[in-house]
Amino acid sequence: MAPGAIEHGPSAKRTRHDPDIDSTPAADMEVDEAPAKRDVVYEDFEGYSPQLMQQFYRRLFPFPEMVRWLSYGHKKNPHPMYDENYLQRREISMTLDGDIFVRYQSFKNADEMAKTIRARNPLKIDIGAVFNVDPAKRNAYSSFGAVERELVFDVDMTDYDDVRTCCTGADICKDCWPLMTIAIKVVDHILREDLGYQHILWVYSGRRGVHCWVCDEKARKLTNEQRGAITDYLKVYKGSENNKEKKVSLQGSVLHPMLSRAYREVLLPAFLDQVLPRQNLLVNETQIDTLLAMIPDEELAEEVKAKWRNGGRRASAHEDENLARWKDLEKIVIREKKRNIRLGHCLEEIVFAYTYPRLDLEVSKHMNHLLKAPFCVHPKTGKVCVPIDPADCDNFDPMGVPTLASLLNEVQRFRGDLREPAEEAAEAALPTDLDKTSLKEAVQLFRTTFLDDLEADCKSDIERAYRAKKDELASRPTTGW
Ligand SMILES: [Zn+2]
């Protein structure tokens, strides 16, 4: 094998910097001694393969952070209130090569988790609920059920295919990604301001969407009914196959404060600055008809169209044509609103239809729903599911996230050699490798924007519960006569 090379499966393509290497048969054979570092000809890893994943789990996956998160303070420093079995009651499931799905796995600690994951080398790791007993031993108990689960949300770009003109299906680009940014902003704000949650983790799904984990204790302990009530609160988008032309219906003369705030602060600015111009909503013929169909007065829609046909308000040199046309439409609808009550929330409804988050609500309603773990690698894109800071989500670039191959190339450049570690080393964590790659930044963000505060709060909650219990015992009247 060439220096710095590891064995690859058929799906991993390789390119070489030095064209001569390809023609040298010896390059693919084992060499006895690694040459001095300066002589090493690196090969770039590309794509995705189980062999690369093995290296990823050995060298880069942040097991300690994952376990710190999922322990919710129940680890280290034996304390009378710590539940040492807490982590082990959590279901972790794995998808193995060949579509083999292994559910109800559990782990005692980070070492055990790392050892098993490294041995089984899953394509995907999912996180399930916390059960009343260790899910791996569920058959030994008469009752088995979920008792805790983060409140989770899943937003997928494919649900916006009727809004997007730039891409369809699994593709994303800089023109449609703002739709995800809008979803993060709106949902995050509602969760924090209206529902009072603080420990919220946003994660890029690795391909075309985002996941949200609400980790406050009161969120983890919500019943399925309460989860349903929260999803109802968030639901505005009432799209259905039979109701294509009008997907949002805003009731009442005044918008709900939550909706009016979302509209003012996020949806309208994003619609005007990003969605309208980038998706060419009023230049693209099909999009024009879709949008105008949302005006509940056909004559008026015709009038708007005629105005555009006749030139309408000319877009200035610096103004986008879509935006100029929107101003025409806005003016006509506002003028007519006084006469036609059906036009009440027409403009807002259009903006909501194009921008309000479209959540896969089934994922949020049930405790027992699995969701992909952060820091997994998406097999189709090779991208790592990195956390997103909601306070800085405008600057998140899904096209620039580290990939399996790019990270291993970074490790290779640092180490000069990625040959299989010795047997013992294979089981040991190699944390220094993470720090030498761009994944470090993502793990740091996970810690500083989410994990550190969560852990501190969990510990103080446990301490508070302990003191309360002690006080209660101390204040109990002594009975004696
Ligand atoms: Zn796109």
From TrEMBL:
Q: Name one Pfam family in it.
A: DNA_primase_S
GO BP terms in the entry? DNA replication, synthesis of primer
Task: Name the domain of life.
Answer: Eukaryota
Kindly list the cofactors needed.
Answer: Mn(2+); Mg(2+)
Per the record's keyword annotation, is Cell membrane included, yes or no?
Answer: no
Provide GO CC annotations from the record. Answer: alpha DNA polymerase:primase complex
Q: Which UniProt keywords apply?
A: DNA replication, DNA-directed RNA polymerase, Metal-binding, Nucleotidyltransferase, Primosome, Transcription, Transferase, Zinc
| Entry GO MF terms | DNA-directed RNA polymerase activity; metal ion binding
Q: Which parts of this chain are annotated as the region Disordered?
A: 1-33
What EC number(s) is this enzyme filed under?
A: 2.7.7.-
What family does the database annotate? Belongs to the eukaryotic-type primase small subunit family.
Its recorded name reads DNA primase
- Species whose genome carries this gene: Klebsormidium nitens
